[in-house]
């Protein structure tokens, strides 16, 4: 298209999605982080037990992850999972199992296409 059709390169560039400079700026990751923090703080305040607080926080993080029902959700799920792996919000074995679930979901969508 050219500028006579109403679209210019600068207009296209202006409408492109902005990159996320921090993981916490990506809404699905931000939701998981909030869930982890809320659960950790609530449990730690109640029990003063770091191990128990981390267990509750891990569960909350998992519960906040996107459902594997669409390609967009699978991508967001993987982004949350990678964030959790890099920041040690989930245990390695659990993260491996969740990545396997994401791979199954990806295979399911490929099979449908």
How does this structure look, described?
The protein has 113 residues and is an all-alpha fold. It has one domain (27-112). Helix content is 72%, strand content 0%. The chain has five helices and no strands. Helix 2 (27-47) packs antiparallel against helix 3 and helix 4 packs antiparallel against helix 5 (92-112). The longest helix is centred in the N-terminal third of the chain and has 21 residues, at 27-47. The radius of gyration is 19 Å and the shape is globular. The model is unreliable at 1-6 (pLDDT under 50).
Task: Briefly summarize what is shown.
By secondary structure, this protein is mostly helical. Helices cover about 70% and strands about 0% of the residues. The longest helix has 21 residues, at about 25-45.
Rounded to the nearest angstrom, the distance between the terminal CA atoms is 30 Å
- Globular, elongated, flat, extended or rod-shaped: what is the shape? globular
- For the record, the count of structural domains works out to 1
Q: What are the segments in which pLDDT stays under 50 over at least 5 consecutive residues?
A: 1-6
Beta content comes to under 5%
Rg? 19 Å
Overall mean pLDDT: 86
Major beta sheet summary: none
Q: Give the SSE order as H and E letters.
A: HHHHH
Percent helix range:
over 70%
Describe the structure using short key phrases.
113 residues, mainly alpha, 5 helices, 72% helix, disordered N terminus
Task: Describe the secondary structure blueprint for this structure.
Blueprint: H1 9-15, H2 27-47, H3 50-64, H4 71-87, H5 92-112
Helix pairs in contact: 2-3, 4-5
């Amino acid at each position: 298209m050219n500028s006579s059709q109403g679209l210019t390169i600068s207009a296209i560039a202006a409408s492109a999605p902005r990159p996320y400079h921090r993981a916490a700026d990506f809404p699905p990751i931000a939701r998981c982080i909030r869930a982890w923090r809320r659960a950790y703080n609530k449990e730690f305040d109640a029990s003063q037990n770091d191990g128990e607080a981390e267990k509750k926080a891990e569960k909350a993080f998992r519960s906040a992850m996107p459902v594997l029902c669409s390609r967009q959700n699978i991508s967001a799920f993987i982004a949350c999972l990678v964030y959790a792996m890099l920041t040690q919000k989930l245990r390695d074995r659990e993260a491996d199992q969740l990545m396997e679930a994401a791979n199954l979901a990806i295979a399911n969508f490929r099979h449908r296409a």
